[in-house]
Amino acid sequence: MEPNWIKWGKALQAIAQTGLHFSQSEYDAERYRQIQEIAAEIFARHSLTEKETILDLFSKDSGYATPKVDVRGVVFRDAQILLVREVLDNHRWTLPGGWADVNETPTTAVTREVFEESGYQTQAVKLLAVYDRTHQGHTPPMPYHVYKLFFLCELVGGESKVSHEISEVAFFPEDQIPELSQSRVLPHQIQRFFEYYHNPDLPTDFD
Question: 67 vs 70, 79, 180, CA distance in Å?
Answer without folding.
Answer: 10, 33, 24
